[in-house]
Amino acid sequence: MNRLILFVLLFSFVFNSVGFSGQMYTATDENGNLIMSDQPITEEQKREAEKKQKQSQEKPTLILERSEPKPKPQETISKLVAIEKNEVENPFPPDRKVVIASDSNNGLALLECAYQVGKSRIGMPEYLITIRVQNNFTKGIKLIQGGVVFKDLLGADLFRIGIDPDLRIEAGKEIIDKGVYSVGFMVKDQRMLKMSPTDVFAEMKLRKIVFFDNSIQDFK
Questions:
Q1: Max Cα separation, the chain?
Q2: Is the Cα torsion angle 187, 193, 199, 201 positive or negative in sign?
């Protein structure tokens, strides 16, 4: 009897559920999930769902813009060009040129020499020296052993520098070489600090030269 009553009640529940459920409506959201409802889906809801689905499928595009360096102001560029041009055209200003000794015009001739006084990072004095030399030999030079001696008008030594040994000079060509030289604590080294370059002699002193063909010229 109890089983019969339970069966009748269950049958009534299913019948009522089906009878009153009405028509079912389905739709798909932006994530692709199926949605079921007993309420009809309006056109506006469909459009909104399609819009969200389209937006979710679109991927943002990353645009990389190349960063170009900002050009220097024309005035600054003009000044830099003027300075570089002046240094190239006149590396030996008259107020910095020294007198060239007559016996410096040998096979490797010292044509011009100029110096100015500067200071190192720690405030010590130093000489900024520029020389122009010419190879009057018929062969190119690839190795130099020698230097330049600075003297006062009476012939007393003031300062000595060594020439870059690895200067390569073609036959008949000339080259400009620059260097920075620390001033020693000896009195004679410091005399040029107070002297005018026009009161200083410069003389080329050579020991040996090696040519392109490996032949050696000895000046001893």
A1: 147
A2: positive
3-state helix, strand, coil in the chain (%, to 5): 30, 35, 35
Judge whether 167 and 141 are in contact, CB under 8 Å: yes
State the pLDDT at residue 19.
44
Whether 46 and 107 map to the same domain: the answer is no
Answer yes or no: do 108 and 207 share one domain: yes
| Strand blocks (E) in 32-124 | 34-37, 99-100, 108-119
Domain that holds residue 197: 91-218
CA distance 201 to 36: 107
> What digits encode the pLDDT tens for the residues 184-202?
777 777 888 889 999 999 9
Query: Is 121 in the same domain as 199?
Result: yes
My answer on whether 26 and 123 are in the same domain is no
Confidence (pTM) = 0.56
- Cα-flanking dihedrals φ and ψ of residue 139, to 5°? -125, 150
Q: Which two tokens stand for residue 187?
A: 């009195």
Read off the DSSP letter of residue 120. -
| Sheet strands side by side (includes 108-119) | 108-119, 125-135, 174-182
